[in-house]
Design brief:
Number of domains: 1
CATH architecture: Up-down Bundle
Structural class: mainly alpha
Number of strands: 3
Strand content: under 5%
Mean pLDDT: 81
Strand order of the largest sheet: 2-1-3
Largest sheet: 3 strands, mixed
Shape: globular
CATH topology: Rhopdopsin 7-helix transmembrane proteins
Amino acid sequence: MERANHSVVSEFILLGLSKSQNLQILFFLGFSVVYAGIVLGNLLILVTVIFDSRLHTPMYFLLINLSCIDMILASFATPKMIVDFLRKQKTISWWGCYSQMFFMHLLGGSEMMLLVAMAIDRYVAICKPLHYLTIMSPRVLVWLLLSSYTVGFVHSSSQMAFMLNLPFCGPNVVDSFFCDLPLVIKLACKDTYLLQLLVIADSGLLSLVCFLLLLVSYGIIIYSVRHRAAGSSAKAFSTLSAHITVVTLFFAPCVFIYVWPFSRYSVDKILSVFYTIFTPLLNPIIYTLRNQEVKAAIKKIRTRHINFGRLNPLLRICCQMILL
C-alpha cells in the first residue's frame, strides 16, 4: 500500500532559525558566504591532494573522502535553507523531507565511521611508524572506506524503512531548518514510542559509542607519545589536536540531540548548524592551516607547477578559481 493512502499531509512547514525578517536577511548573507567557503575549501583539499604526489598517502586518501562527505553533508539542506531565508512560507514536500532525513543519516553515519578510520590511521602512523605502509595497505584503506559507507547506509535505511508507512494526518510544522527524525516522528498520528527508542538505540548509540571510542583511542595515542623526543611529540600533538577538534565539534551536538532526541530543547536546531554547516567549514581550515605538508602543496600549486593545460577546459577553470 502506498504511503499516500496512510497520510493526508503532503508537505511540511519549516520554521527555520528565526522569525525576524532582519535576522533572516543577515542569515542569508552570512550562510551564503559560509556555504561558498565550504565548497571552495573542500575542493581546495581535493585539488591539492590529487595533484601533489607527495600527499598520495593513506592519511590524505581518507581526508579527501572526508572532504567529499562534508561537501555533500553541507549541501543536503543548506542551499534550501539559504533560499528559505527570502521566503515567507518555508515548505518542503513529504518526499523532500524524507530525502533530507535519509541523506543526513547516511552521510552522518558514514562520517562518524570515517573519523574512526582516520583515528586508526593516526594510531598506526604514530605508534607503529615502521609498519605504517604495510598495515595501512590499499586493501585496508578500501575496506575501511567501504565499511564507513556501508555502516552509514545501514544506519540510515534501518530508520527510514519505518518512516514510509508512518501516518501524518494533521500537524506538519517542523521547528528547524531541515527535516530530522526526532522532529518529524513526533508529528505522526500514532504512538511512536517504539520508534523513538529505535532512534535512540540507532542514532544516539552510534554517536555516543563512536565518540567514546575516539576519545579513548586519542587518549592512548597521547599517552604513547608523551615520552618521545620533543620534535616528534610536538608534531604528533599538533596532528592529534586537529583531529580531536573535528571530532568534538561533530560528535558533541550529535550526542546531545540523538541520545535525548525527544526533549524539548529549542537549542537543538542551533546545535544542528554545527555538524551540518560549521564542521564542514572548519575541516578544511583545520587540516590546511595546521598542516605544513598541505600548505606547502597549496603554495606549489599556486605557483603553477601543475600543468593545467592537460585538464579539460571546465576543470581547468574550476581549479584556477579555487587557487586564486
